[in-house]
Amino acid sequence: MSSSARPLPAALAAVVLGAVTLAGCGDGTPAASGPKVIGFAVANTQLNFAREMMDGFRAGVAQVDGVRQVTTGPPSTDSPHELELFNKLVDQTSDGVAVFTLAAPLFAPALQAAGKRGMPVLAVDNPPGPGSGVKLFIGNDNYRLGQLLADQAIAGLPAGRGTVVIGNNAPGVPVLDLRARGIRDEFAKRRPDLQVLGPFDTKQDVPANLVAWTGLVRANPQALAFLGTGDADGWHLAAIRARVHGRWLAGAFDLDPRSLQAVRAGQLLLVSPEHYVKGAVAGRLLADAATGRSALPQGWLETPGLVVDKSNVASIIARQVSYQARGAWFRAEIDQIIADPDGHLRPLAEAG
């Protein structure tokens, strides 16, 4: 997760933390009746994973003529505050809304109310809660992402007995719980000789996350690996490993610039959920629905993840340098998903 902002083109406007951001998105002149307006609420506007989704959302909406977008979210993870902002967003955007929240049950009544108003509604990254009425979820197979991180760690571990420590920075959030379970199950299958501890709560708050991992490393000095489910887990583990000259493996998720540099330096194993793709697909599908081009598909639209290692980290760093570079990198993949959404759909009940 990253607390550092990346500049966006002036035409898109910068995110104003804790407030709604308006940005023009049509490629041509809106219809005489005015542009359609759609919105996206995220759990945290400062951290890398959410910023990637917002950037993708803008890019997806920008592909559809006559639509503008609004994004909003709290500057730090605060689900009740996000819900307040979401309710304001619904009042501003009558033509469709997407939400990424870490508290899906809390949002269920508000999502149901938005749907009853006739608004196209979808969930991104974290599945919708029971009773929400949301019929489209765009997100990863996070159990599989956990397996991918475990596979990287297993490839680098010596033979023989030892301990692996797992941390989860938001216990109870389904997508992160699934990552932790994927890690545990993969070790149980491939390295049953190793003792896997956790997942321990490594905290959503960024300073608290560093404290939590520092304590776990001190408490487990002989551990072979420390693996986290989130964003700050990555750059904090890499920093601790470098500071103490650790020989253990560190691993986590997401594309904070500090984590990418840690991969380049050999301090971190990393898996990217490719959050930009989720945001872009959500923006494009919602804009298409708002303009009547196509109805929202129904189910779990699964988007891919990516192992980031020394073989590809330089190209990923280059991709992440600018909004334009990411747009060019992902354009063909996003176009393919939009052209055949049914080919990527799974039953919504299978989403964690």
Summarize the SSE layout with pairings.
Elements: E1 21-23, E2 36-41, H1 48-62, E3 67-72, H2 79-92, E4 97-99, H3 104-116, E5 121-124, E6 136-139, H4 142-156, E7 162-168, H5 174-190, E8 194-201, H6 206-219, E9 225-228, H7 232-244, E10 249-253, H8 257-264, E11 269-272, H9 275-290, E12 299-302, E13 306-308, H10 313-319, H11 323-339, E14 345-346
Parallel strand pairs: 2-3, 2-4, 4-5, 5-6, 6-12, 7-8, 7-9, 9-10, 10-11
Antiparallel strand pairs: 1-3, 11-13, 12-14
Helix pairs in contact: 1-9, 2-3, 4-5, 6-7, 8-10, 9-11
Gist?
The protein is α/β, with parallel strands linked by helices. The protein has helices spanning 48-62, 79-92, 104-116, 142-156, 174-190, 206-219, 232-244, 257-264, 275-290, 313-319, 323-339, and strands at 21-23, 36-41, 67-72, 97-99, 121-124, 136-139, 162-168, 194-201, 225-228, 249-253, 269-272, 299-302, 306-308, 345-346.
